[in-house]
Amino acid sequence: MMKLLNFSLGKSAMKALATCLFFTLVACDKQNTEPETPPTQTGPFTIEIKRSAKAKEEATYFSFETNQQLEIDNADATTSLDWDIAIIGLSARTNGGVSGSGKGCAIRTETEDFEHLTSAAPYIEQENLWETDKKKTVYTFDGNMPPSKVTLGINPLLCDGKWYSMKPSSTPIEAAVDHNVYILRTAKGRYVKLQLIALSGESGQLGNIRFRYDFIKETGSNQLVAPKLRDNEKLISGDGTLEQLLPEIKAKSVVYLTVQNKTLSQTDLDYIKTKMPALEELDLRHATLSVYDGQKGFQDFKNIRKLVMPINLEAVGFGHLSYTNLEEVIFPGNKLLRIGSGAFSFSEKIKELKLPDSVEAIGKEAFSVMKGLEHLEFPASVSIISESSCYYCPNLKSVVFKGKIRTLENYAFSYCKSLTSLKFMNATPPTFNEGTWPLVEAEYWDNADKAPRVFIYVPKGSVDAYLSAWRFKKADAAYFKEF
């Protein structure tokens, strides 16, 4: 006779058994219905973008996060955070600025050492060198020759003259790739190093851009291989005056000079001015300037064409960059607070200035008689546009006021006869003194057919406030456009 095994469980044991069975079943259910997350891919990645066959203004989108080319329409891309870089022709856009709602931007590192660039930190502090997307006219490729041009959102660093240079009239097209590493911030705020390999694919298809990329840290430093110096280039650092470190017999032939980890006095600047006639480019980003109001700074410098100011610079003194032959002045840092009176006046070859957002005050006549200046943006913290700020800048075409401008002082834009666009980002209009007129003269406001030539861009719904504050007539609303 078969004996039945008889056993009983207490209440606590029953609860434990039920709990165990429950979690076992849940785990089995998850295993059956939820696929495992694939392991995170590690770079570097080498990519060939398959150019869009759509209309010439359609971009081809790519995600660094997923390492995939995406199918996104231009209209949807402006609000999507799924993409990080987009290729149009031979140029590229990032997911930021006018192109997208993300945190995208880019910086050129001036090193080709892709392998040892592992941190974005040294470049994050050079805040004013990062570029977001803007409207630019670039070449596109739709199968016709020569290539046509279109105006659209593009990152200013990722286009002709920057990450490549080309001769569009040549057949076949001649283009040289910039092998410097670029750092891009993704739509979601991570950092990627990117190096362009070629403007054509493995099969020779122009526009199938190839590049390599990898994610990098936000902290730490880089142990980069020192770049090979160009002919007639010198790198100076250490104690002593510039004359002691670079005797005149060597100084007179230097074309490119970088100064690092050193403080320069007015005596050093005078030495550069008088003893270095061949000098064209001066890079002081990792140096310090000890020059004060009452001293001349770079005034009357006729030799250098490009000047990179120190990252830690806090002020540009009275007239310190006036009467020069400078074509480009770069402020890489974001510590500059004050620009003194007449700072850039009569420097007639500078076409555009990118001022750091840290600037709070700009003195009178700071940009007066800059005959080459075409575009200028006043930082958000600047509230007063001082007297004669841009007096007689005959080629100045557009001005943007990024902050809340309280006052436009007299003659601020007098005799700026090419000025056609003033953009005020604040809905509250600035005031100006009774009996004075800070803007361009009345004879420049209309075309020959009496149609408006000058347009004032203001936030939506604020035209009436501007008309009232400036005592304009209702008919003058034709000069305003809302955004």
Describe the structure.
The protein has two domains: 45-218, no CATH class; 291-482, Leucine-rich repeat, LRR (right-handed beta-alpha superhelix) (Alpha-Beta Horseshoe), CATH 3.80.10.10. The chain is globular and about 65 Å long. The protein is built from seven helices and 29 strands. The strands form eight sheets. A six-stranded parallel beta sheet has the order 21-23-25-27-28-29, with no helix packed on it. With 483 residues, the protein is of the alpha/beta class.
Short description:
The chain has 483 residues and is of the alpha/beta class. The chain is 12% helix and 27% strand. The strands form eight sheets. A six-stranded parallel β-sheet has the order 21-23-25-27-28-29, with no helix packed on it. Strands 1-13-12-11-6 form a five-stranded antiparallel β-sheet, with no helix packed on it. Strands 14-15-16-17-19 form a five-stranded parallel β-sheet.
- Spans where pLDDT lies below 50 across 5 or more residues: 1-39
Number of distinct beta strands? 29
User: Do you know the CATH topology of the largest domain?
Assistant: Leucine-rich repeat, LRR (right-handed beta-alpha superhelix)
Measured between the Cα atoms of the first and last residue, the distance is 95 Å
Number of helices: 7
Mean pLDDT: 90
- Please identify the structural class as seen in this structure: alpha/beta
How many domains in all? Answer: 2
Radius of gyration: 29 Å
Cα shape: globular
CATH architectural arrangement of the largest domain: Alpha-Beta Horseshoe
CATH class of the largest domain: Alpha Beta
Strand line-up in the sheet with most strands: 21-23-25-27-28-29
Main beta sheet, described? 6 strands, parallel
Percent helix among the residues? 10-25%
InterPro entries: HmuY (IPR025921), LRR_5 (IPR026906), LRR_dom_sf (IPR032675), Surface_bspA-like (IPR053139)
Keywords: Signal
Protein name: Leucine-rich repeat domain-containing protein
Organism: Prevotella heparinolytica
